[in-house]
Amino acid sequence: MVAAGTATFFDGITAARREVTIDLGATGLRIRAADGRLLAEWHYDQIESRSAPEGVLRLGKTGNPILARLEVRDPRLAGAIDELSTPIDRSGRAERRDRAKVIGWSIAATISLLLVAVFGVPEIANRLAPLVPYSVERKFGAAIDAQIRRTLDTRHAGAAFECGNNDGEKLGRAAFDKLMGQLEAAAALPLPLNPAVVRRDEANAFALPGGRVYVFQGLIDKAESADELAGVLSHEIGHVAHRDSNRSVLEGAGLSFLFGMLLGDFVGGGAVIFAAKAILQTSYSREVEAGADSYAVGLMRKVGGDARALGVILTRIAGIHPGPKLFLDHPDTPSRVIHINALAGSDPTRPLLSPAEWAALKRICAGKLE
């Protein structure tokens, strides 16, 4: 690197123009007259660049009341001063360094948000879920329900998407309501349940926050008894009782907010969509599923139904092969069935529906969409 060179110096007191020699030291530059006399010494961190014609590096001293200036036309000397002085940045080195810092901090912030999303949000959701007032939970559920309907009703059937409203389906709806009413009365939850049977071919059921329970036509088609259907319903009521779907919504909304911070989307609609997807794609942990299974067994025994029926339908639908979503996402069907049977006991059972009522319930979606 160049250690010395020539330049033009104006002392700011007189109009005299002096050709000087510049020595580049460790901490600053020294300005010397032609006879070697020291005229000034400027530290590198006190130098500032001033406007100048192209090809000229015009320098001044920061905070100096005397408007002394130095004009360097030697490009090698100008480049050496640029390298040594932080305030002088003709090459854009400092800008590139600052940009690299911004990128580095952005990456670090992104990683931090991802760590919070993976580890922090679930823990926060676990702690908050039991504390959310039921009135707020019902509002969560209502907002998500509208999004869920739009997602599930792919044929845009509207009101006809829900089974049990046609003339040929009303007896089935009455039987379903009777079955659900027995379970709801025995559960004695602090909020009312709002079940719906919808025209979907998958053997599936799930619960939303606030007591909304969806049952797919495919599940009713696969069930061979009222007890089997009641077992699955009891399992979903268990999720409502334990507020598991509420927890999923809090996780979904929390993640949506975090990623909204990254993407600049702070609108509530994004959180609702994210939460709806979280419900539809929920894969509960083994512990959560075991809790819902235990609740289902207890509820079935309370109403006098066959508590083993849940294990029977699980085995039939899931078997040893991957089954529909309700069972595919849930952990280890054989272990669940063993757990269910161990809790079921040998209590005497009673029919939850008459044969005629069960036959009617099987036809709850018999009507055709236009």
Mean of the pLDDT scores? 81
Radius of gyration from CA coordinates: 37 Å
Terminal-residue CA separation = 84 Å
The succession of helices and strands, N to C, reads EEEEEEEHHHHEEEHHHHHHHHH
State the domain count: 2
Q: Which regions contain 5 or more consecutive residues with pLDDT less than 50? A: 115-121, 257-268, 320-330
Classify the secondary structure makeup into a structural class: alpha+beta
Strand order of the largest sheet: 4-3-2-1-7-6-5
Largest β-sheet summary: 7 strands, antiparallel
Can you put this structure into words, describing what you see?
The chain has 370 residues and is of the alpha+beta class. The chain folds into two domains: 88 residues, PH-domain like (Roll), CATH 2.30.29.30; 243 residues, no CATH class. The longest helix is centred in the N-terminal third of the chain and has 36 residues. The chain is rod-shaped, with a radius of gyration of 37 Å.
Quick overview of this protein structure:
With 370 residues, this protein is of the alpha+beta class. It folds into two domains: 4-91, Pleckstrin-homology domain (PH domain)/Phosphotyrosine-binding domain (PTB) (PH-domain like, Roll); 120-362, no CATH class. The chain is 52% helix and 14% strand.
Helices and strands in order:
Layout: E1 4-10, E2 18-24, E3 28-32, E4 38-43, E5 47-50, E6 57-61, E7 69-72, H1 75-84, H2 93-128, H3 134-152, H4 170-187, E8 194-198, E9 205-207, E10 212-216, H5 217-222, H6 226-242, H7 244-263, H8 268-280, H9 286-303, H10 309-318, H11 325-328, H12 333-344, H13 355-362
Parallel strand pairs: 8-10
Antiparallel strand pairs: 1-2, 1-7, 2-3, 3-4, 5-6, 6-7, 9-10
Helix pairs in contact: 2-7, 3-8, 4-6, 4-9, 4-13, 6-9, 6-10, 7-8, 9-12, 10-12
